[in-house]
């Protein structure tokens, strides 16, 4: 599986590709670096996002997960930059419950690109499975602006 890494203000991130699509984004690199067209583009888009120059990713994605997870991933991808939804909002949209939505968010293998940080609990931030937990979630939400409750 080809992998590339980039250094960002969140730390070193590794981007993984399988069969021409991004399958994972992980914190703390493995030391491996391969250049494929998809990984070059993913690294460039991720760096542009981190530098405040990209609001929407345009990459081939292939996250693992069952039907509900895939539906939640699509719902997260539909949330515009600078906006948030709650687990309940997504659950109502998908005719399910908040807990399975939260589980799918926690299982998201491509955080940031599939913006699980834009999903909040009804009573606050909720969790974040990426390195740094909710502190990283807060940093990403602040980075995207439009979150006066976090400024």
From TrEMBL:
Its EC number is 2.1.1.63. One of its GO terms (biological process) is DNA alkylation repair. It is an enzyme of class 2 (transferase). SUPFAM superfamilies: Methylated DNA-protein cysteine methyltransferase domain, Methylated DNA-protein cysteine methyltransferase, C-terminal domain. Its main location: cytoplasm. Signal peptide: none annotated. Residues 6-63 form the Methylguanine DNA methyltransferase ribonuclease-like domain. One of its GO terms (molecular function) is methylated-DNA-[protein]-cysteine S-methyltransferase activity. It is found in: Cytoplasm. GO terms for cellular component: cytoplasm. It catalyses: a 6-O-methyl-2'-deoxyguanosine in DNA + L-cysteinyl-[protein] = S-methyl-L-cysteinyl-[protein] + a 2'-deoxyguanosine in DNA; a 4-O-methyl-thymidine in DNA + L-cysteinyl-[protein] = a thymidine in DNA + S-methyl-L-cysteinyl-[protein]. Keywords: Cytoplasm, DNA damage, DNA repair, Methyltransferase, Transferase. InterPro entries: MethylDNA_cys_MeTrfase_AS, MethylDNA_cys_MeTrfase_DNA-bd, MethylDNA_cys_MeTrfase_DNAb, MethylG_MeTrfase_N, MGMT, MGMT_N_sf, WH-like_DNA-bd_sf. The active site is at residue 116. Belongs to the MGMT family. Involved in the cellular defense against the biological effects of O6-methylguanine (O6-MeG) and O4-methylthymine (O4-MeT) in DNA. Repairs the methylated nucleobase in DNA by stoichiometrically transferring the methyl group to a cysteine residue in the enzyme. This is a suicide reaction: the enzyme is irreversibly inactivated. HAMAP family: OGT (MF_00772). NCBIfam families: ogt. This is Methylated-DNA--protein-cysteine methyltransferase.
